[in-house]
Amino acid sequence: MATSRPVGIKEEQQPNGSRLSSRSLTDLAVEAIRSKILSGEFAPGQRLVEERLTELLGISRPPLREGMRLLQQEGLIVTLPRRGSTVAALDEDDVHEILTLRSGLEHMAIDLAMPVEDKSRLRSCWEALEAMESSAAREDRAQLVRDGYAFHASIVALAGHRRLNNMYASVQQQVMLCMARNLRVREHHYEDLQQHVARHRYLLELIEKGDPQAVLAELAVHGERSFTLPAEEVPKTAP
Amino acid sequence: MATSRPVGIKEEQQPNGSRLSSRSLTDLAVEAIRSKILSGEFAPGQRLVEERLTELLGISRPPLREGMRLLQQEGLIVTLPRRGSTVAALDEDDVHEILTLRSGLEHMAIDLAMPVEDKSRLRSCWEALEAMESSAAREDRAQLVRDGYAFHASIVALAGHRRLNNMYASVQQQVMLCMARNLRVREHHYEDLQQHVARHRYLLELIEKGDPQAVLAELAVHGERSFTLPAEEVPKTAP
DNA sequence: ATATTGACTATTGTAGACAAGAAACAAGGT
DNA sequence: ACCTTGTTTCTTGTCTACAATAGTCAATAT
């Protein structure tokens, strides 16, 4: 049964060229499972039985379990003691939490970074923006989405705050999970790609100009336009 | 050598009365190690060899390693591949990150919670404040510190934001680590206990009154008074 | 004397097997 | 017929053992 041709992750690393053991099997497992969750291959609520995953990934349980712990803390899976793990099933409250968290962390990053002394630090932001423009020109919506994430991450990175970066990355993961779940999927359907990129460019220009208030205001509208749906589609749990 | 009377964490659970296996060995290991780090028993930079820890805690390596992964993500330990783990040694930048993060998350929580519709949600805050007053009256400084953490956590909890709560708890852990390291240890030496409690009471009253701006302003001063040291005590690592 | 290279040791990474708890099912009693 | 209870099976939690790697130290050659 062990010879049933597993879709292992170890062998696939060989043709990569670099050291295959550069990263632990735990890391590989995390990436593999995360990818399957975000791509929708693993549906929300689906049980994740360790034995199944080990034979799917071609690894043993210890590294898998360590990876599961990490995914659990990332919020992508939910684990109950002695009951096993399932893919996180996000309800409307979760989506609300994730989006407010993202917005809040961006706000925090701007507060920390905002008098950007060294303009050269903005370079990565401009590069990310150029990537967006390129993708928009090619009308590659999927890539544009990824570029958008990278752009926002580069803005947050201006704060030079390692822990904040990590938190923001974790939240972005969960935002992707929201999108994968087709909850508020509108972000993927920018009516006008050019306008979408233009808003990002405007945001970056405001940052370079050095007006924190304007940036925060634009950021608020920004998030608003990207994620808030008409009221009828937001069954918020009334307080 | 296995009979060398380990300071196991399993046996100690027995006299507790409740189910000894109610929590996994991983959780027990996390708590045990975290406690030893925060108490200073494990010094910053100290290597944490898995074999040593297993015989110290009386458990085997798999659950220990899972616990280490969690501590790693909590930021209490640092792990290099194939090199092992060490207790996180925080430099001044780390301390700055942790304190700004704490401040930022509290800010975020106030923004989210601030028109507190249901005043009954403030009850846990008042209870935490009463605990502080009690500790201050008994001049129990150690307990007052813990009460202070609980108070701030209760404020953050007003936002009703599970993910934010988790993040904040993680940051508080790291704040404790800062304090354990005697970096900016002043927080533990409130000149005037009564005044310290009074400031917290004032903060809570402002929240109840419903003035977000005043709360944020007070919170800023609050953090300032608790943590900022004179420049001469800050041996910044010069670049 | 110093540098370099080799083997050795200590420690981490991984695997497979065992034990314990929880859910599902069947059989019996009321 | 339904509920209760015992059993079975599946899954997780844990342990021991093996493999691989990085650091260390000594020996030898220049």
Order of helices and strands of chain A: HEHHEEHHHHHH
Residues in helix, % of chain A: 55-70%
Global shape of chain A? elongated
Residue stretches of chain A low in confidence (pLDDT < 50, at least 5 long) are 1-6, 11-21, 228-239
Q: How would you classify the quaternary structure?
A: homodimer
Number of helices of chain A: 9
Distance between the termini of chain A: 54 Å
Physical arrangement of strands within the biggest beta sheet of chain A: 1-3-2
> Major β-sheet of chain A, in short?
3 strands, antiparallel
**Backbone CA Rg of chain A:** 20 Å
Which chain pair has the greatest contact? A-B, 28 and 29 residues
- The pLDDT mean of chain A sits at 83
Strand segment count of chain A: 3
The helix-and-strand class of chain A reads mainly alpha
As a percent range, the share of strand residues of chain A is: under 5%
Give a nutshell description of this structure.
The structure is a homodimer of 239-residue chains. Chain A is mainly α.
